Amino acid sequence: MMGRDDIPVALGEVFAMNQADPYSSVVGDCKYAKAIPHGSGGFLDSDTLFGLARDLPRSPRRYTAENSLEFGAHRNTTQPELRHPLSLESVMKTLDPGLKITILTNGPLTNLAKIILSETNTISQIQEVFIVGGHTGHRSNKGNVFTVPSNKYVEFNMFLDPLAAKTVFNSGLNITLIPLSTQRKLCSFPEILERLQLTRETPEAKFAERLLSKLYCLQQANQRYQHVDIFLGEILGAVLLGSDYSSLNPTFREKNIRVNAEGDESTDGQLVIDKWQGKPVRVLKNIDPVAYYDLFTNRLGDKEQSAVLGSYDEQKKIWSKPSNQTANPQISPVMISDNRN
After folding, report:
1. pLDDT digits (tens, 9 = 90+) for 236-274
2. Distance between terminal CA atoms of the chain?
3. How far apart are CA 222 and CA 50, in angstroms?
4. CA-to-CA distance for 61 and 90, rounded, in angstroms?
5. CB-CB contact of 164 with 120 (8 Å)
6. Averaged pLDDT, 51-69
7. What gap in Å lies between CA 27 and CA 154, rounded to an integer?
8. What does the alpha-carbon distance between residue 186 and residue 192 come to, in Å, rounded to a whole number?
9. Backbone angles phi, psi at 217, to 5 degrees
10. CA distance 297 to 200
11. Alpha-carbon gap, residue 9 to 89, rounded angstroms
12. Are 134 and 179 in contact (CB under 8 A)?
């Protein structure tokens, strides 16, 4: 969309850790993933960007089979130059020795856990991790996994792979947690849309305004979309990493956190404050909401930070070719996997 092809995009894991079918690695157990709705703000809407994907040119790249059996592929793609790698494969190939990186996650922690458990020394190169997710609030405030009534105090990203969350929190990494309680303080569509409408000078700002407007309209029109305002809070991770966030007046507290991952759907993924068995984590407790909306919209509207657009018409011509002329038409069985992660 931005006329660029220099930013690696990798395919995330489809199933939670220890959820793969023992007889076929490409088929897994949907014990946790089944909690995500298929429509109404779930898989289908994510795949189509709530309908906006129809307005974007079709990329020639595909989530095809890997080109190397060493990463578990059961076949090779005929055009490896047009395929997306797996997340672990991408990190292993692109990370320079001695380079320190900061990781931001806004989904289940499956991919990060796989990196931590890999035989490479990648974990030593991770300087810090910002995790958008988890629920550390008071018991009077419920979590957001509304499709599993028995688990009242869990947040979606932790529930979708509790074992991965436990692996990451026990890894000893320098972790900053942006919990659900903090995200919920930043869920005003009118506030952010008013600012975006005044800063629509870049393609990024225009796109964000259209997408968030669609979410707001759906939320007002249909009860099944009442939960989509939480996506505004998930943007917070990108705002923290993409700018000097001191203007947000953030308040952090250190807490010892333990993750429930016992195979019990009524408690899995819950974060427990445990002074003795928990691991120290820096938790973002408060920020200035008005400053957050301003910083987000100003950053998107900054022309100096905007990507340089290539020829949109030329891209449309190239990307509109039949798939057999641009890439292997065999698409990964579960395209929704990059939404889950």
Report:
1. 998 988 878 888 999 999 999 999 999 899 999 999 999
2. 21
3. 14
4. 15
5. no
6. 66
7. 26
8. 9
9. -65, -40
10. 9
11. 11
12. yes
Q: For 109-112, which contacts have Cβ atoms below 8 Å and span 24 or more sequence positions?
A: 109/133, 109/157, 109/158, 109/161, 109/164, 109/165, 109/167, 109/168, 110/12, 110/13, 110/15, 110/16, 110/17, 110/160, 110/161, 110/164, 110/341, 111/12, 111/13, 111/87, 111/341, 112/164, 112/168
What pLDDT does residue 325 have? 46
Question: 262: how many CB neighbours lie within 10 A of its CB?
Answer: 11
DSSP output for 28-51: E--TTGGGS-SSSSSHHHHHTGGG
Q: Which residue has the tokens 């595909």?
A: 62
The C-alpha atoms of residue 273 and residue 174 are separated, in whole angstroms, by 17
Q: Tell me how far apart the alpha carbons of residues 82 and 106 are, in angstroms, rounded to a whole number.
A: 26
Count of alpha carbons within 13 angstroms of residue 316, beta-carbon side: 6
For the entire predicted model, the pTM comes to 0.82
Range list of H helices, the chain:
43-47, 87-94, 110-117, 156-159, 162-169, 180-183, 189-196, 203-221, 230-234, 236-241, 289-300, 312-319, 323-326, 337-340
Residue with tokens 């809070």: 233
The arithmetic mean of pLDDT across residues 42-63, rounded, is 77
The angle subtended at Cα 288 by Cα 286 and Cα 291, nearest 5°, is: 145
Q: Are 330 and 227 in contact (CB under 8 A)?
A: no
Return the minimum-mean-pLDDT range out of 17-21, 96-100, 138-142.
17-21
* CA separation for the pair 287, 187 (Å, rounded): 13
